Amino acid sequence: MLSKVAYVCGPLTELNAELAQEVRDFYEKIGDACREITGVRAFIPHEHFDPVKHANFTAQQVDDAERDQVCNKTSLLIVVPIAPSWGGGIEVEMANQSGVPVIILCENGKKISRLLKGNPAVKTILEYHTQDEAILKLKYALDQMKWCTSLLKQNL
Questions:
Q1: Cα separation, 154 vs 101, whole angstroms
Q2: Which of 2, 42, 98, 117 could form a disulfide bond with 34, CB atoms 3.0-4.6 angstroms apart?
Q3: Given phi > 0 = left and psi -120 to 50 = alpha, else beta, which region is 154?
Q4: Strand partners for 122
Q5: Are 94 and 70 in contact (CB under 8 A)?
């Protein structure tokens, strides 16, 4: 049986080319940070369904695959609201319905919807000034979650 992995959720569609590449790189750093702390790299959607590189996938195919990933193969949803998006909220609600906890990794001072922040799946919001700070805060949070999960398993 495959173990569940973290899933990195954030916008790509409609970003300009320069920002889109910067965002892809940031998501990949987040995936690598997950591997460093948990031993398993996070699922990064653009590596499988990039709107430009994988344009041949239909909307239904992307929904089916990502819905399965979030609902059945995800241990933690990491939301990165870098720009407005019409997709991230769907993933958060899928996580909520599937009992998957959510961390929001948000640039300091960035406004995000109260509806998103109020979703019951959201366990913490980590604000950052730089991407390096974001990665450090995420690693700390992942380490704390790993420690708590380990402690719970010992007490069962």
A1: 21
A2: 42
A3: alpha
A4: 102
A5: yes
The answer to whether residues 12 and 83 touch, using CB atoms and an 8 Å cutoff, is no
Which CATH number does the domain housing residue 40 bear?
3.40.50.450
Residue 98 buriedness (CB in 10 A; 0-12 / 13-18 / 19+): middle
Number of separate domains in the chain? 1
Q: Which long-range contacts (CB under 8 A, 24 or more apart) does 106-113 make?
A: 106/80, 106/81, 107/82, 107/134, 110/81, 112/81, 113/89
Residue 105 and residue 135: Cα distance in Å, rounded?
A: 9
- pLDDT tens for 95-116 read 999 999 999 999 999 988 899 9
Strand, coil or helix: 79 = strand
The reported pTM is: 0.90
- Owning domain of residue 31: 5-154
Contact status, residue 77 vs residue 120, Cβ threshold 8 Å = no
